[in-house]
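User: Teach me something about this protein's shape.
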Amino acid sequence: MKKALQLGAVGFDAVKHLVLCHVEKRPPKLDLDVYPYLPRANVETTSAASYMALMSEDAA
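Assistant: First, the predicted structure itself:
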């Protein structure tokens, strides 16, 4: 879910909360500071060239 990635929330409970709020059309009340044990995500865009390098004969 895009909102979870924007918030850096990748834990099951945090993502579930965001999804339920979206379905129920209510604002999320998610303060990740009270969940220090939840992992933080740093998601970057991967270029297509990186994937193509995996498919090359040199990668085998």
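Now, about its shape. The mean pLDDT is 80. DSSP finds three helices and no strands in the chain. If you'd like, I can walk through any region in more detail.
User: That's plenty for now, thanks!
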